[in-house]
Design goal:
Oligomer: heterodimer
CATH class of the largest domain in chain A: Alpha Beta
CATH topology of the largest domain in chain B: BirA Bifunctional Protein, domain 2
CATH class of the largest domain in chain B: Alpha Beta
Number of domains of chain A: 5
Largest sheet of chain A: 7 strands, mixed
Radius of gyration of chain A: 39 Å
Strand order of the largest sheet of chain B: 1-4-5-9-8-7-6
Largest interface: A-B, 90 and 85 residues
Number of domains of chain B: 2
Structural class of chain A: alpha+beta
Strand content of chain B: 15-25%
Helix content of chain B: 25-40%
Number of helices of chain A: 18
């Protein structure tokens, strides 16, 4: 969340000669991030990001306190000037009764005033507008002005329009409707904090936004100035589900200081007196069921130094904490710190105190030191990431483009029965509902999304998700690819996988006719199912492999085979054989005819004829022609018997 | 006679050495060694020489012949070599080359490679933890209060299934920080130097968010780990990844699972720190970091009284886009899978 503050406004609460540039720079380094400093006439506007744990800094007073502390630690004179408030005299008169519940509201302060509605003075208008809040009239402006200065949201009702002798704070029921001050209708979900009048009409959506039936108008004469410190989770839930993200809601959903509620009341009364001729006509109502207790945290200076990494001067550390509003006590080596009410929600343990000390000391003043290696651990070179990288590199040099598609898919892109799908309960839209079980559909979508490219080779390595009962889904690293090209061949895809296998040191890859897809191959690695090659069309082939199976078998181990001293004899043998005979069976048959056959491969196939490239080699001596021709005869007769093959 | 032979030898050698091509050499060969070549004829003169001198003449004649033949042979080899370069390809050096096939790795892969190498070089061990996680790892063990907004339906994706009685609802990991707990459980005891790079998911989609993205998470736990060590590590990363001209800083921030917590900034690549419209007063936010919260160490089974640690978790896409040379201004491009885009890299 961000807050914009005029430099001159800030300087009402911090007295210093430091330039706004210097203030911005030091705040960023030690406190809140000043994202921008804009010139504004003769003034400057700080645009500041405040972290969610520090709602106290969504205020000028809070930023001023930090500014003074940090400037001082950096040797620049500065003084924090807190808001000075006094309790006014009030008539002992009760004009309205407020009933509330401790589970809904931590504290509630209110007062009735007679006022005069008009424009705010120039300075107040300027300051509000510079901080991004539109000036409307003095009655509304006071509520925003108080919020900017103190950090506590406040609200103002037209007292007479409320029609309430009793204002009851309660939980909304599902289906109750409201109209917010910007005249939008909402149906409530139930559980929101609302205020109702004597007729049980909802007159406020607490902590989020005022309603059109109770806000001040030009005719307003009496106001109920109303400060409510609410149960933050209800505000968050209501604001998010209704989609009303006002500044008040964003602040109210944090853990807001309850002590501050009363300050906000007093400051508002003061302002109404000053700019709306305000006069208090009722006693002050202060319902405070959930009081906060005292909280102390202890830390040793030894621990401070150990975490920060340099020696910290205890006096300087204590000074910083005092300036930040903590009470401190040094007991031997220990520092005992009492947490101020505005930090109760955020300071819990010694590390929180160390953080305060360290940031005010300045992280930029700390040295940079790489952590020491305290133990020798072997570096595993060929780990899973190594193989993944190696495969990706190979694919790149084989002309594939790598894609990153979403793990979540639509119903239409999910392959398999939906009850097997890992389903997202709160999807962003219908394109991202199920965790995919296969990658190919996503790749095919990339193909259709890139119609202008006639030839496409893409691949991806990503997880797929297998649902398991009462457990996290199994995440299986999967490797998939698609080739789109006119007349693309099955053997091209098979060749890529074979070649990858050999690069990974994998033997025993087998290809069987696919049981799954009908047109393609199922792949196995030593009996384990690896995946599929699937022919989708004459111009479209995909593959999808279980990458974890490949990883299991990938190896860098290599063994040297002695080079042969004697040359091999090489010849081609063409045979005619029925086309349902598998090449692999023919090769196995040929090989089994003699130990002297060192290599057999299919060189060519055309119509009913296949040509095999056969290499004969004897490691002991030169082979003679007679020896080779004897083996050849054996091969031919064996192929004839086994496969009815004839020599061409 | 001897003088004649020497003269023939000298003139032959000088002519042979001067020959410019194989054709000329062939002619010279004929001129001296051919059937009616000068040297052949001179050798035939042996019959005219007195018998007692023939032996001496014979030795000299053979030597001369041998020398001429050798010179021709050597010259021939030389000329053959030259002739290869002499027969020149007709080329236009400005014509395009015949390129070997080349594909493209995704930018995210390229960034992950770099990040991995940078951290492995200082002893980090790369791991990968589940993308579908239990609330316990993603939030509970990381010290998130029960009602923290990150646990809302608005920010995190939840899986439609029964919650685990101990580990809570099942969800898509909104960050890689759950890996901190898993790594502590795996290692059992420090020292730990983890680099966890994985996909993460959040319910957001705009110019700087995609519902799926990648983070890299560092975790170092040991006996004396300090804020200065965190600063050293991120300075090392920023210098390695962005180059020496960029500076890094840490400033106060807030996270549930670290205390103290930091936001890490790197100087803007466009203005190099002077401030421009693309950055925040000269700085770009890289991501969060901090000293591991004692409750997180406890959840991971490590005693916070004896050990400290730091952790950081940054977006891969984010650091990639912060590079000054890349100039990608919409993260969604990275996941558009527009091939014209992917094939630029």
């Amino acid at each position: 969340m961000n807050i914009k503050i005029l430099d001159s406004w800030l300087r009402e609460y911090v007295k210093t000669k430091a330039s706004s540039q210097k203030i911005g720079e030091l705040l960023s380094l030690s406190s809140v991030s000043v994202e921008r400093i804009e010139a504004h006439a003769t003034d400057f506007i700080y645009d500041i990001e405040v972290t969610t744990n520090r709602p106290d800094l969504m205020s000028i007073v809070g930023i001023a306190r930090e500014t003074a502390t940090i400037l001082k630690q950096n040797g620049i004179p500065a003084e924090f000037i807190p808001l000075k408030l006094t309790k006014p005299q009030t008539p002992k008169k009760e004009l309205i009764e407020i009933k509330s519940e401790p589970k809904l509201v931590n504290r509630l302060c209110a007062v009735v005033m007679e006022v005069e509605i008009k424009d705010s003075p120039r300075e107040i208008k300027d300051r509000l507008e510079a901080s991004g809040t539109r000036s409307l009239n003095n009655l509304i402006d006071v509520t925003n002005y108080v919020m900017k200065v103190t950090g506590h949201p406040t609200h103002v009702f037209d007292f007479d329009r409320l029609n309430a002798k009793t204002l009851t704070i309660r939980e909304a029921k599902k289906g109750e409707t409201i109209q917010t001050l910007d005249e939008k209708e909402y149906s409530l979900n139930g559980g929101e904090i609302v205020a109702v009048n004597d007729k049980n009409e909802i007159v406020d959506l607490l902590g989020i936004m005022g309603l059109s039936n109770s806000i001040v108008t030009e005719k307003t004469k009496r106001i109920l100035y109303f400060i409510n410190n609410n149960e933050p989770n209800r505000i968050r839930k209501a604001s998010m589900s209704l989609g009303i993200r006002t500044e008040a809601a964003v602040i109210n959903e944090k853990n807001l200081d309850r002590e501050l509620s009363y300050d906000a009341l007093l400051y508002g009364i003061q302002l109404y007196k000053e700019i709306a001729n305000g006069e208090i006509v009722s006693d002050i109502i202060d319902i405070y069921p959930n009081k906060i207790g005292k909280k102390t945290v202890q830390v040793t200076f030894k621990k401070v130094d150990k975490v920060i990494g340099v020696k910290i001067d205890p006096q300087k550390a204590e000074r910083a904490l005092l300036d930040l509003g903590f009470m401190t006590k040094i007991i031997g080596d220990k520092l005992e710190v009492e947490v101020p009410s505005f930090r109760i929600g955020d300071v819990e343990i010694e590390e929180d105190i160390i953080e305060e000390i360290a940031r005010i000391y300045g992280y930029h003043n700390l040295p940079s030191v790489l952590p020491a290696q305290t133990q020798i651990t072997a570096h595993k070179f060929a780990n899973d990431y190594y193989w993944e990288k190696r495969v990706k590199q190979a694919m790149k040099y084989w002309e594939f483009t790598e894609t990153y598609t979403y793990s979540m898919v639509s119903e239409g892109m999910f392959e398999g029965p939906l009850e097997e799908a890992v389903e997202i309960k709160n999807p962003l839209n219908e394109d991202f509902v199920y965790l995919r079980k296969t990658i190919v559909p996503s790749l095919l979508k990339v193909i259709t999304d890139n119609k202008s490219q006639e030839e496409i080779k893409i691949f991806e390595i990503a997880n797929v998700y297998n649902k398991r009962p009462r457990d996290l889904p199994e995440e299986i690293l999967t490797f998939a690819g698609v080739i789109k090209r006119n007349k693309v061949s099955f053997y091209e895809v098979k060749g890529i996988i074979e070649q990858l296998g050999s690069d990974l040191g994998i033997k025993n890859l087998t290809f069987k006719e696919s049981q799954k897809t009908g047109n393609g191959a199922s792949l196995y690695l030593e009996q384990e199912y690896l995946g599929e090659i699937e022919i989708l069309d004459t111009n479209l082939i995909d593959f999808e492999l279980n990458f974890t199976v490949l990883l299991k078998h990938a190896t860098l181990k290599q063994e040297y085979k002695p080079l042969s001293k004697f040359p091999s004899v090489v010849e081609d043998l063409s045979i005619v054989v029925a086309d349902d005979v598998k090449t692999e069976d023919l090769i196995l048959n040929i090989k089994s005819q003699s130990d002297l056959i060192s290599r057999v491969s299919l060189k060519d196939s055309y119509k009913d004829s296949r040509t095999f490239h056969i290499e004969y080699q004897d490691p002991e001596k030169n082979l003679t022609n007679e020896e080779v021709s004897k083996i050849r005869e054996k091969i031919i007769s064996s192929l004839k018997t086994a496969f009815h093959a004839s020599v061409r | 006679m001897d003088e004649d032979l020497i003269g023939i030898k000298n003139s032959a050698i000088s002519l042979i050495l001067q020959a410019e091509d194989l054709k000329e050499l062939e002619e010279l060969k004929l001129q001296f060694l051919g059937r009616s070549g000068k040297l052949t004829l001179a050798l035939k003169e042996i019959t005219k020489i007195p018998v007692e001198k023939r032996k001496e003449f014979g030795i000299l004649a053979n030597e001369v012949k041998q020398t001429v033949e050798d010179t021709i042979k050597e010259k021939e080899i030389g000329l053959k070599k030259i002739s290869k370069t002499v027969i020149r390809q007709k080329i236009d050096v400005t014509n395009p080359g015949i390129k070997p096939l080349l594909g493209h790795l995704h930018l995210v892969t390229q960034a992950i490679e770099e990040i991995t190498t940078i951290f492995e070089s200082v002893g980090f061990e790369k791991v990968r933890y589940p993308e579908v996680e239990w609330d316990w790892y993603a939030f509970g063990a990381l010290n998130f209060p029960e009602n923290h907004p990150a646990r809302d339906d608005w920010e995190t994706f939840f899986i439609k299934t029964e919650p685990d009685p101990k580990r809570g609802p099942m969800l898509l990991a909104p960050h890689t920080s759950g890996g901190q707990i898993r790594e502590m459980e795996r290692k059992q005891k420090p020292p730990i130097r983890m680099l966890n790079i994985a996909k993460c998911y959040r319910r957001q989609s705009d110019i700087s968010h995609t519902p799926m993205f990648h983070q890299f998470e560092g975790l170092v736990v040991d006996k004396d780990i300090t804020i200065t060590n965190l600063k050293g590590t991120l300075d090392y990363f920023a210098k390695s990844f962005f180059g020496p001209q960029r500076k890094a800083r840490i400033r106060p921030y807030h996270f549930q699972f670290t205390e103290p917590s930091f936001e890490v900034d790197v100087t803007c690549g466009v203005c190099l720190g002077t401030g421009c419209k693309l950055c925040k007063a000269g700085w770009l936010e890289m991501g969060g970091a901090g000293m591991v919260h004692p409750n997180v160490l406890k959840a991971g089974g490590i005693d916070p009284d004896t050990h400290t640690g730091f952790a950081f978790g940054w977006g891969v896409e984010r650091v990639l886009m912060m590079r000054e040379d890349l100039k990608i201004d919409d993260i969604r491009l990275l996941y558009s899978n527009n091939l014209d885009f992917l094939q630029q890299f």
